Amino acid sequence: MPAYVISEVGVRDAADFGAYRSLAAETIAQYGGQYLVRGGRVELIEGEPPPKTMIIVEFPSMARLREWYASPEYAEALKVRATALERRLLFVEGVPAV
Fold this sequence. Notes:
Layout: E1 3-11, H1 14-30, E2 34-38, E3 53-59, H2 62-69, H3 72-84, E4 85-93
Antiparallel strand pairs: 1-3, 1-4, 2-3
């Protein structure tokens, strides 16, 4: 069953954000993830607060997603995350294939 990382981010430092984005993308691919949404236009239809930049990544399973997040490779990206961006991060289980 697929699993998803949903991130809502705000950029703190553009240079660090670029570094984080490159490092994170490499590790996501390494762990079988793929971007479904990566900063496209967001339109708020209901609710608050106004949305920030959205990123959605699909992994083959929640186990693989958690392996990625706890990996030494992604730890390198996390070293610059605090200065690069602020975010809300969610892990969401998908639905089984029909």
